[in-house]
């Protein structure tokens, strides 16, 4: 009888706010655990509205978020959001096992004082128990995360301004790993022991995360992103920033664009990926990866996966966080396939609806 009354958790959207756009994803799941992509949408932001995770033009970002909500058609009132990893201090610590909740909180605050360079009154602090310590019998491994309160409040304020209730505040790289983990489970042998380089190409910067199953082996940020392609278009053809972005999205570019602008940019981006992997190899015992996965708005650039394979000698493909999901009636399949790599973080945030 209990199964007749099973209910899904309340609807929740994942809202990924980056320097170049806002992405929304809403998921549902059946009793067998199969996901359906109910809604997804992207709304571009003008350069300078958000800078290094800081809201410089709050009202303009709110207006863009309202357009996104209307475009998506969502009726959900709860939202999961995330902070850039650069705005979060995170640290694994070891604490005695068997502590009660209040004792654990007190110990976390005591330990956090050692790693956070400002008063705890100025930060939002959270923690989770990962599990038994692999190196200290009877102790537990705990992850603590802290960010300045105003950074969290900016995102809470955005959610509330568009009529949503913030339920989860995650870290962008954690959310992208959650979405990637579901895709990696579909690799041969469930991705067992596979070393995978997840390269997310943002507007102004890119992030490399090297993963092996549930383990993060390495992480690195690089100041290189899709905005540099916009700058090349402006320099080559005299476009304004708005014209260049609009023509990129519409595909209305000069005949010599591929040869003069796109191909050199793709080669430079492939070299950036190769350079990031070399840092990984020289900083760890590893000397190869089994697969490179590309996410972000520039992941689908023509010839990029091939250029990266040529530069690194490792197989490369775009990641589709919706792979294996059913598509809702309002989702356009071809559009989703084209834009899927951009939704990795938003998808991970939407998946938080189904976590304990």
TrEMBL record:
It comes from Ottowia pentelensis. InterPro entries: ATPase_NBD, FtsA/MreB, PilM. NCBIfam families: pilM. SUPFAM superfamilies: Actin-like ATPase domain. Pfam families: PilM_2. This is Pilus assembly protein PilM.
């Amino acid at each position: 009888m209990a199964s007749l009354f099973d209910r899904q958790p309340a609807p929740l959207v994942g809202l990924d706010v980056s320097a170049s756009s806002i992405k929304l994803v809403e998921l549902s799941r059946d009793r067998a655990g199969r996901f359906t992509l109910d809604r997804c949408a992207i709304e571009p932001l003008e350069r300078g509205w958000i800078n290094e995770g800081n809201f410089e033009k709050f009202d303009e970002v709110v207006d863009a978020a309202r357009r996104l909500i209307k475009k998506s058609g969502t009726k959900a009132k709860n939202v999961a959001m995330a902070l850039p990893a650069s705005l979060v201090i995170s640290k694994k610590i070891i604490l005695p096992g068997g502590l009660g909740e209040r004792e654990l909180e007190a110990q976390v605050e005591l330990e956090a004082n050692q790693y956070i360079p400002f008063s705890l009154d100025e930060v939002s602090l959270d923690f989770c128990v990962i599990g038994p310590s692999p190196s200290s019998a009877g102790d537990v491994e705990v992850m603590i995360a802290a960010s300045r309160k105003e950074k969290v409040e900016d995102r809470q304020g955005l959610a509330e301004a568009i009529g949503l209730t913030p339920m989860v505040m995650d870290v962008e790289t954690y959310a992208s790993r959650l979405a990637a983990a579901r895709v990696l489970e579909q690799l041969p042998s469930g991705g067992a022991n596979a070393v995978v380089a997840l390269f997310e190409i943002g507007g102004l910067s890119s992030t490399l995360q090297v993963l092996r199953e549930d383990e993060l082996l390495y992480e690195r940020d690089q100041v290189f992103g899709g905005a540099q392609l916009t700058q090349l278009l402006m320099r080559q053809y005299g476009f304004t920033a708005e014209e260049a972005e609009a023509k990129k999205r519409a595909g209305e570019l000069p005949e010599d664009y591929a040869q003069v602008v796109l191909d050199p940019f793709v080669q430079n981006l492939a070299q950036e990926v190769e350079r990031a992997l070399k840092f990984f190899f020289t900083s760890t015992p590893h000397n190869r990866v089994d697969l490179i996965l590309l996410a972000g708005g520039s992941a689908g650039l023509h010839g990029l996966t091939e250029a990266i394979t040529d530069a690194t000698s490792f197989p490369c493909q775009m990641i589709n966080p919706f792979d294996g999901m059913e598509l809702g009636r309002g989702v356009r399949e071809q559009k989703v396939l084209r834009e899927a790599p951009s939704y990795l973080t938003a998808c991970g945030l939407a998946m938080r609806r189904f976590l304990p």
